[in-house]
Design a protein that fits this description.
The protein is mainly β. The chain has helices spanning 120-131, 137-146, and strands at residues 21-24, 30-35, 45-51, 59-62, 65-79, 82-86, 91-94, 100-115, 149-153. 14% of the residues lie in helices and 42% in strands. InterPro entries: Cupin_2 (IPR013096), QDO-like (IPR053146), RmlC-like_jellyroll (IPR014710), RmlC_Cupin_sf (IPR011051).
Amino acid sequence: MGGVVGTSAGGPYVLAAGEGAPASAPEGSEMLVKACSAGTGGLFGLLEGIDRAGFSTIVHRHDVAEAWYVLDGEYRYYVGGRWFEVGPGGFVYVPAGVAHGLRCTSAGRKLTLLVPGGPEGFFRDVHAALEAGELTPDVLRDLGGRYGLEALGPLPAT
């Protein structure tokens, strides 16, 4: 990370485009961790996701709030039992504990904010397991438990 201004936990730093720790969603989103809990004093985690058309998550919930800012592409967010269409410049906020998921309907890019930080580590650990060829359903379940993620099932038909 050549653009780092400060290196102490919670200290200032700067990342250029394309910089960040590699991360992945188990369903296939390529991600970069732009900010992690350790680097923000626990305040938040921030990920940049690059999604192919058709990428979707399962319905899940966790004990942190999550928000997305769509940079490019079209997404459908499933939040609290309702579907929402979101395009470039759109914003979605989901309070902690609310069931949600998403589907990318055209290739897209988004920022994901987790408050407080911590669960961004799930995506970093999924990436490491994928790279090692060790991402099994048991490993995924263990990682979800470690980061407070509860899988609820597939997205409903749209």
